[in-house]
């Protein structure tokens, strides 16, 4: 692997770990700490997204006799202008 490829790989990984595209605004220490943490404790994604987890929890609760009452539909935090 060439240095330029390694640099691009690390840059793309850093953008994911620090949630920024402007890497010049983030210290290397922050990136390294997050990289080390992710290697020690890897992230596991929920297959099917978070809704799968919510639906499974709801089924389990209702199967245990819990009665869930939906009072009103949640309103969006903000509304996009059309």
Explained architecture:
There is one protein chain. With 82 residues, this protein is mainly α. The protein is built from 3 helices and no strands. The longest helix has 16 residues. The mean pLDDT is 87.
Structural class: mainly alpha
* β-strand amount: under 5%
Main beta sheet: none
Percentage of helical residues?
40-55%
What general outline do the C-alpha atoms trace? elongated
Order of helices and strands: HHH
Low-confidence stretches: none
How far the N terminus sits from the C terminus, by CA atoms, comes to 47 Å
The number of helical segments is 3
For the residues shown, what is the average pLDDT? 87
Number of strands: 0
Radius of gyration: 21 Å
Structure, briefly:
With 82 residues, the protein is an all-alpha fold. Helix content is 52%, strand content 0%.
How is the topology of this model organized?
Blueprint: H1 3-18, H2 28-40, H3 50-63
Notable traits:
82 residues, mainly alpha, 0% strand, 52% helix
